[in-house]
Design a protein that fits this description.
Length: 373
């Protein structure tokens, strides 16, 4: 863990330097500053604030502005992307925030049951806040806030789709722009999520302060995608990811995956489940790194590489050597051929980050909950 901490601090120092840059060199430009001012002005005017965080980094992804301008009774913490985080640690973080008198809920914005639970919690909280008002005629407003790329727009869309009441509204739906890249939401927009009483949710642009105080938060924010990869460099991020993977026990479950997958292919072929068109399609898209067979090969390759490192993983020079080797050996399972060494490293980094951020390399929580709080 000492080596991982060292790599994390080094990358965080790079992130901090980028944050201090003005203009295109950093992420906190005039537009983000204006968005932050608009959000802070809006907070006192709404009934409830939903602060969306990344469940993989519940502390690092905190939206600091929400804490300064409101009391906890109008504040809910939403740990989104819980499907990408360690389940037990998400539960620990939820309990931790609840002990601090914050309403906290883990959410998967792409799961209807999860969004239903969130929607019911929002309805209940707004009813509690509006006790004494005529429920059917009152209107409640909810503000979604958070740093970039935590899934605010995905949550707004899902709540809007599930919360509409009658078929007449179906043809009038508008959608928030959802993108894996941070900074796509540019304006504050409202979406109706319930009737009787009416509840509207306001989706806001992601805001990340230029000042990152914690020595480890910068690297975690960058790896989670809160900062544009182009500012940090995919190669640098992928090297830190390799340090994260090698410091976790998740890789141990990948032993023998390739043999198991080969057995599945053999069995399906013998039973005639694969037809010629399927085989042609698999050959045609052989470079698609999201295919199960390729993901299985990548996991097996990482298992073998990390296992060979384990005896010396507390030595930084050995970790550096492992990273260099990993970029080379991953070219084969990722089907990266006929490219220069520099281009191969770029492609490996890009595909490795994508597999991590979509959960294909397992579930990780980078922030550990304070158990004795």
């Amino acid at each position: 863990m000492a080596v991982l901490s060292s790599f994390s601090k080094r990358l965080s120092s790079v992130v901090k330097e980028i944050g201090r840059k003005k203009g295109d060199g950093g992420w906190y430009g005039p537009h983000m500053a204006a968005s932050e001012r608009a959000i802070r002005e809006r907070i006192p005017m709404v009934d409830l604030v939903l602060e969306v965080r990344d469940a993989r980094i519940p502390m690092a992804s905190a939206f600091k502005s929400a804490w300064h301008d409101m009391d906890s009774s109008r504040h809910m913490i939403i740990l989104n992307k819980m499907d990408l985080a360690d389940c037990s640690l998400t539960e620990e973080w939820t309990v931790h925030f609840q002990k601090q008198n914050h309403i906290c809920l883990g959410v998967n914005s792409h799961n209807n049951e999860s969004i239903n639970q969130l929607l019911n919690a929002v309805k209940k909280r707004t009813r509690d806040l509006k006790v004494g008002e005529i429920q059917n005629t009152s209107t409640a407003t909810v503000l979604l806030v958070g740093i970039p790329n935590v899934g605010k727009s995905a949550i707004a869309n899902s709540m809007h789709l599930i919360g509409r009441i009658d078929a007449a509204e179906k043809g009038k739906l508008k959608h928030a722009v959802v993108s894996p890249q941070p900074g796509e939401t540019r304006d504050i927009r409202s979406y109706k999520i319930a009737s009787h009483p009416n509840i509207y949710v306001f989706d806001t642009p992601g805001v990340l302060s230029a000042e990152i105080a914690d020595d480890d938060s910068g690297s975690k924010l960058a790896l989670a995608g809160a900062i544009k990869d182009s500012l940090i460099g995919e190669y640098n991020l992928a090297r830190f990811l390799l340090a994260v993977l090698s410091s976790s026990d998740v890789y141990k479950s990948w032993e023998g995956l390739k043999r198991a997958w080969d057995q599945v292919l053999l069995s399906n072929t013998q039973t005639g489940k694969f037809v010629d068109s399927d085989q042609k399609r698999r050959r045609q898209y052989e470079s698609d790194h999201t295919q199960d067979s390729i993901v299985s090969d990548v996991r097996q390759t990482l298992f073998e590489s990390i296992s060979s490192l384990k005896l010396h993983q507390e030595k930084e020079e050995e970790m550096e050597r492992f990273m260099d080797v990993a970029f080379t050996v991953l070219c084969e399972p990722l089907r990266i051929l006929n490219k220069s060494e520099e281009d191969r490293c770029k492609v490996v980094a890009s595909k490795l980050l994508n597999l991590y951020r979509t959960g294909r390399l397992g579930r990780y929580t980078l922030d550990i909950a304070p158990r004795n709080a």
